[in-house]
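Now produce a polypeptide, keeping tokens residue-aligned:
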Amino acid sequence: MDIAASLSAELVAVLKDDWVLYVEARETDALKAEIGPASGSSSINDSTEKKEGSGPNGTNANAHGSGEDKRTDAINQGLRDRLRPLLLNLVRTKGLKEGMLSWREVIQGELKALVSKKLPGLEAESEGSNGNDEVRAGLANHLRNLSQADFMALMKGIYRTLMNGIERLKSQGDILSEMLEALKPELPNRRAPRSATTVARTSSTSNSQSTALSSSTPSLPLIPPIEEDLNDFLSSSCELANTTVAKVVAFRSEKHAKLELPEFMDFFNTSWAFVVRCEVISKRMIIGLRGTVVSQAKLWLQTFHQARISQSAKLVEDEVWNPSPVTREVQRMTDIIVDSAVKDSPELFIDPTKKTPEQSPGEASKEVNGTSSQGDELANPPSTAKTPATPSKPSATTPLRIEDRTYFAVKATLDVLGLLLDYLKIVVNMSMLTTDTMSRVIEFLKAFNSRTCQVVLGAGAMRSAGLKNITAKHLALASQSLSVVFELIPYLKRDYQEHQNEIHAKLVAIMGDRLKAHVKTLHAIDWNANSPEGGVNTYMVALVKETVQLHKILSRYLTLPVVEFVMSQVLAAINHGLSEEYGKIELRDQHGKNR
């Protein structure tokens, strides 16, 4: 046992030494790349990008990746050379399992240390004792007081380091499995014990038969199966990394809720990429960081939404209901909304690495959770909530065009189009929030409609905007404003409609699957045999029952036109499927045909 324990300790030392050196080397490479002349915004896994040749310098990145591969191959070979005698002796002394368990305990501490080196107070947070309250409070204040740029630089470094550690663990697991498989021919095998019956049979046969039976007895290798242990080891390491990072991110919940779209997008996409990469490596869903990021995304979206509801209400209340000229920028925004029905316009995409223009303190205080990505007007059209739609030249009679239709619009309506465009940017840049965002769009448009009715039909504008009375012109322009929004709604339905169509198709597919199950019963029927007069086959009874049940459920929750559409698709699929199956049945007499 002392020998096995000594070998286990040596195995842990070899694996730890290899892991630490690898992670430190990759971190050094990343830091050199960040301060290099062609450095850009670092991703969560710069090392992986360079290895794949996708770096900013094209050919140079590929050359660097090739050299990196050679270095990694040399490191792997060195690890194999050191592990070979250790594994051989651990198998012989039956200490392999113990060695792997020891390594598991050590690496969990090492993974935590990767984060605690950058955030020392995190160890106190993990320990959770009352004596560490001050340390935890200090860590919380430190993280909350960081600027978003500094926090993202910190997180990208943590994500990168953890990912390097996780990827090295996976490589080590692959090498261990490969080497143990290669060692099998060199290890003695033990014969499987034979039962008393086998021994008796052997003693009663000839010598040649006995020899043949003995040689065919299965042998059991001494190497214990560790594939499952390695997979579980890797998964638990990924979960630990995600849980540790989630604690850090949780401290910034309130800060993140107030971020502008490009900043939050940078945080969300970077964190999500780390989560997905861990799940791909471990082949499991990991809840820790995923849940925290999704929760913060929903809180951010709600804050974003409430800010725009308030801005929209303010715009309508201050509107004096005079025609507003339509600038090229406003017309372009309208065209983008129309185009969104069939494609994502390039102007909707946001580069989170691009710095936003400096704001005056007054501007910054006016907007919470806004979209200040107007540094490049072509790439990111300005939000008209902050940049008034007053043009330099156009006449007040210049109408707004929506395809082949024209409308006169007031300034509030044109500004609302800019707010609406901000929602579309979320859909395009953060697809995980598409469903939640589209529901907020509907709420936003309903609120605009309601507020417009209040100030015009309810004469609220006489108080809020100082109008003496509400004239026919005011009513006409209000009608035109609502018409603009009404006309644009169909173009905003694409994502919802696609999702809804997928749901309807799924309902049809479910009944298609049920039909396939009943078809098996159909083919099992002997159609030429006698059957009770007027009897209905069980497959048809079950199919009709399930179809009626589906209709009842749909009728309870969906509108009549939708129910009719889905059920027509279901019935058409059933009729087509049954027709094909009936055609495959061979009927030998008239009795079978009558059935």
